[in-house]
Amino acid sequence: MRVGELWRYPAKSMGGERIDGTELTSGGVLGDRGWAVRDEVRRGIRGAKKIAGLMGLAARFLEPPALGAPPPEIEITLPDGSAVRSNDATVHERLSATLDHPVTLWPLQADPEHYRRGAADSDDLLEELRGIFGREQDEPLPDLSVFPPELVEYESPPGTYFDAYPLLLVTDRSLATLQHLTPSSRVDIRRFRPNVLVTVGDSDAANDAGAGFPEQAWIGRSIMIGGTILDVVAPCPRCVMITRGFADLPEDRGLLRTVVRDADQNLGVYATVRTPGPVTVGEDIRLV
């Protein structure tokens, strides 16, 4: 197996940057999810599960992120092709107008209260969860026990803008399997937002799993990329975000139906960084 692609997302739920190499730290890819928007109606940090239009925006860093430093300023490209920078006095106004919802843009903050959950859209918990995960009435909800317990109170683990864990890995085999199961869909990596696309080829790690979604067999194991060690900790239950239409991708609700039905709701796996270090595209990956 090898590192096929590396992705960094300067802002939560916005389009990211494909990069050739990065430093993997205890917080994942250096600079990943350094910024996010706050919902000024419901309060609380929000992603595209709630504000779908975020996926139509694309963010890039104005300077490379540095170890131990705050996230650099970013430039956000809007759907009309114009751009606004995070340090522009009009950034909140322009993002709010584009998203048709009052928001403000924030870098990572030290205060845990910044990450506390805002008001739900529904008083019915099941209705709220079905909306977030895009589940039909006859479909099961994900196993929420795979998520860190602090997500009951906080939108993301305090100090981060991650959904749950710092790294998301997806194999090319899983994307190919999903495309085979949904031939009318466009199974594009941008819908799934991994940090690492793993090229499995004919490796034993893929064949031993005996499945079209081989990374699910890695949970509880570790991965070595050079001297960098990752621990694979949980599956990634998929939500309404993979159905969103943005850029040149159409809305596709059927894609999520297939993931729920044929992939046990999951595509990709979450990982944490046990031993930090550099990673580059093309490096070998070893499962241990």
Question: So what's the overall shape?
Answer: globular
Instruction: Please write the string of helix (H) and strand (E) elements.
Output: EEEEEEEEEHEHEHHEHEEHEEE
Structural class category: alpha+beta
Total count of strands: 17
Could you estimate the helical fraction of the residues in percent? 10-25%
Strand order across the biggest sheet? 2-1-12-11-15-14-13-17
Question: How many domains comprise the coordinates?
Answer: 1
CATH H-tier superfamily: PK beta-barrel domain-like
CATH class division: Mainly Beta
Supply Rg: 18 Å
CATH architecture: Beta Barrel
| Model regions low in confidence, pLDDT < 50 over at least 5 residues | none
Tell me the distance between the termini.
12 Å
Number of helices: 6
Q: How large a portion of the residues is in β-strands, by DSSP E?
A: 25-35%
Could you characterize the architecture of this molecule?
- With 288 residues, the chain is an alpha+beta fold.
- It has a single domain (2-287), classed as Beta Barrel (M1 Pyruvate Kinase, Domain 3), CATH 2.40.33.
- The chain has six helices and 17 strands.
- The protein has helices at residues 91-99, 125-133, 172-181, 189-192, 204-207, 253-262; strands at 2-8, 17-19, 21-25, 28-29, 35-39, 45-46, 58-61, 74-77, 83-85, 103-107, 167-171, 196-199, 222-225, 228-237, 266-275, 277-280, 286-287.
- Strand 3 and strand 4 (28-29) form a beta hairpin.
- The protein is globular.
